[in-house]
Design brief:
This protein is α/β, with parallel strands linked by helices. It contains 17 helices and 13 strands. The strands form two sheets. Strands 3-2-1-4-5-6-7 form a seven-stranded parallel β-sheet, sandwiched between helices. Strands 10-9-8-11-12-13 form a six-stranded parallel β-sheet, with helices on both faces.
Length: 371
């Protein structure tokens, strides 16, 4: 069978690579052409475009690169038509992939969408078009199945979260060289410059209250060393690491984590965490109006209750972080509860086996007519 897979970000490349491996186990003669990255290529996909050439973040950057984006869309459509796939598999990356899905439906090409856009948080108006253009939707968050069925009368398939197997593999590989010195508190302030500027200084100030710990910042890929150095120089018990976030979490006693996928990764590593979010006043005011969720961390959203503490906007202060960090470090009852909640979270996200294998089986059965 012929599969055309499109991922537009590093996370999509990771999950796409595991999907390709599982597809090849089911379909040894599979021909797979893809947009993604090095991992998808190493897994056996024929790489057409690297995600480095696709990722434009922020309104201004998107506007500045509209011509490139439209060229990529046109090239993608032409390449799909020439390849003539049995199915098109779209991985997250909704700004690009939903346009391709709509076009593919008009061409009579069958579409599988793996890892749903977070329309339950914002841009719900996309769902009507998605339902019309997507033949099979594979979701990775358990509440998404109920959301689509109850609100949109759309039966989608929950396959579990692919991060579970990724983290399990990393844990099984071990810690490597252990970090010397005091117990570690990880600081994960995000990957974008503006969010780091807002949150990291507050996180750093907390290090003064915990002299018996070493704080280690997970630096964002592509960010200059000098950007961090000016912020870190006043804090003697703070160091940093780059491209080693999982290694850092493996050896951390606790973590301060910006909202996003990192909150879920931290929980799957079993690290007690405090979730930190702060944006510009304007951005925060807009977000409050357009984003429709009870929590900002995936851990709490999935569990549908407050498992990890969220300190948002004006609540993100050194004093509040001190209090919450002290609680997860020294309150044995709190630590035991987190351990139980993390175990329940992992069980919920891995129901029925590994997500990549389940997704591959569903796609293969769909293409071959077995489903």
């Amino acid at each position: 069978m012929k599969y055309y897979i499109i991922a537009g970000e590093a996370s999509g490349d990771l999950h796409g690579s595991n999907l390709i491996r599982e597809l090849r186990l089911l379909d040894s003669a599979a021909s797979i052409r893809c947009w993604g990255g090095d991992k998808m290529q190493e897994a056996g996909g024929e790489l057409v475009k690297h995600y480095r050439d696709l990722a434009f973040m922020g309104f201004a950057e998107v506007v500045m690169n509209l011509r490139t984006i439209f060229r990529n869309l046109a090239f993608c459509k032409e390449d799909i038509l020439q390849f003539k796939p049995d199915t098109l598999v779209l991985i997250d990356y909704p700004g690009f992939n939903l346009r391709i899905a709509k076009w593919a439906r008009a061409q009579g090409i069958r579409v599988v969408y793996y890892i749903s856009p977070q329309v339950w948080a914002w841009k719900e108006n996309r769902v009507k078009m998605m339902k019309e253009c997507i033949d099979k939707m594979l979701v990775i968050l358990p509440f998404e199945k109920d959301y689509y069925r109850d609100k949109w009368s759309w039966e989608v398939e929950y396959v579990g979260h692919p991060l579970v197997e990724v983290v399990d593999q990393r844990i099984a590989a071990g810690t490597g060289q252990p970090l010397a010195g005091k117990p570690v508190i990880a600081l994960l302030p995000g990957s974008r410059k503006q969010e780091i500027i807002k949150k990291l200084p507050v996180m750093l100030e907390v290090s003064r209250s915990f002299p018996d710990y070493q704080f280690i910042v997970a630096k964002a890929p592509g960010m200059d060393e000098s950007f961090y150095d000016s912020m870190l120089q006043a804090y003697p018990n703070v160091t940093y690491t780059r491209n080693a976030t999982y290694e850092l979490l493996l050896q951390s006693t606790a973590a301060l984590v910006t909202s996003g996928t990192a909150t879920l990764e931290t929980a799957l590593f079993g690290v007690p965490e405090v979730v930190c979010y702060k944006g510009s006043p304007i951005s925060y005011a807009i977000a409050k109006r357009v984003i429709k969720v009870k929590f900002i961390s995936l851990v709490n959203l999935i569990m549908d209750r407050l498992v990890v503490k969220e300190l948002i906007q004006h609540d993100l202060t050194p004093a509040n972080i001190n209090r919450e960090l002290n609680d997860i470090l020294r309150n044995e009852t709190r630590k035991e509860q987190l351990t139980r909640d993390y175990a329940a979270l992992k069980q919920l996200l891995s129901q029925g086996g590994r997500a990549s294998a389940k997704a591959a089986r569903s796609i293969y059965d769909f293409v071959t007519g077995a489903a």
